[in-house]
Design goal:
- This protein is of the alpha+beta class.
- The chain has two domains: 3-92, 2-Layer Sandwich (D-amino Acid Aminotransferase, Chain A, domain 1), CATH 3.30.470; 105-235, D-amino Acid Aminotransferase, subunit A, domain 2 (D-amino Acid Aminotransferase, Chain A, domain 2).
- 25% of the residues lie in helices and 27% in strands.
- The chain has seven helices and eleven strands.
- The protein has helices at 3-7, 25-38, 49-56, 105-109, 140-151, 195-204, 215-220; strands at residues 10-17, 63-71, 84-92, 119-121, 156-160, 166-169, 173-178, 181-185, 208-211, 223-228, 232-235.
- The strands form three sheets. The chain has a five-stranded mixed beta sheet with strand order 9-8-7-10-11.
- The radius of gyration is 18 Å and the shape is globular.
- The model has no long low-confidence stretch (mean pLDDT 97).
């Protein structure tokens, strides 16, 4: 058994493949690079487009690739190396993928697919620590949150930090649309910084404002969008 299983000593990245292409590849590589630094890994191999594409060549043309990166070697809590090992899985997946393409973000948002549902708030605050801003293999916080979501018969579950600020939805970043503009929770609030949100901030940063968001902002928003690497943007309110 590896250290990822024994100690949760690692992280993972989920990557959408569409017609044998990876639309957000550059942003996935950013996330992997940042996670490697946070976890103090020292890979002896290069993790770049060629690395991802070599794995993709073993997958079907449409689906979700998950790559698990974990510290290799032995040791207990104290590892005896910072070398990196990895494995991966692939799941067929054909739901539509939507991201804006024009210069008019507000107009493009009107074309986003809709999957509206009821939204609940997880009462347990998420620790605002670096290693939980990536997709950690130590995911018990999200496992328990998912169980709470099921118990509440909710379609979506908002995660808050210890200051009561919303940092993310259970499996996605979020955008809020109001009469004042388009907003996303401040990255300083401790949410996972996903590939789709990275794409949006790079291409539409002039239209999107980061701010501290509370449940009152959620309740008064005209529209809320989920931002996921697997499906892109989806309107959930």
């Amino acid at each position: 058994m590896n250290r990822g299983f024994l100690y949760g000593d690692g992280f993972f990245e989920t990557i959408r493949i569409i017609d044998n292409q990876i639309p957000l590849l550059a942003f996935h590589l950013q996330r992997i690079s940042e996670a490697i630094e946070i976890y103090q890994f020292e890979p002896s191999f290069t993790i770049d487009e060629d690395f991802i594409n070599a794995i993709k060549s073993n997958c079907e043309e449409n689906g979700i690739l998950r790559i698990n990166f974990f510290r290799d070697g032995q040791g207990k809590y104290l590892p005896n190396t910072n070398e990196v090992a990895f494995d991966y899985t692939f799941t067929s997946f054909n739901l539509p993928f939507f991201v804006p393409t024009s210069l008019d973000l507000e107009a493009d948002l009107k074309n986003a697919p809709s999957a509206k549902g009821n939204i609940a708030l997880y009462p347990e605050p998420k620790p605002n620590v670096d290693w939980l801003t990536v997709k950690s293999l130590s995911s018990i916080f999200y496992v328990l949150a998912a169980k709470y979501k099921e118990e509440q018969l909710s379609d979506y579950l908002l995660i808050q930090n210890s200051d009561g600020n919303i940092c993310e939805e259970l499996v996605s970043n979020i955008l809020l649309q109001t009469k004042e503009g388009i907003f996303t929770p401040s990255l300083k609030c401790g949410g996972v910084y996903g590939a789709t949100l990275r794409f949006l901030l790079k291409n539409y940063g002039f239209d999107i404002t980061e701010k501290e968001i509370t449940i009152k902002d959620i309740e008064s928003a005209d529209a809320i969008y989920s931002c996921k690497g697997s499906t892109g943007l989806t309107r959930i309110k």
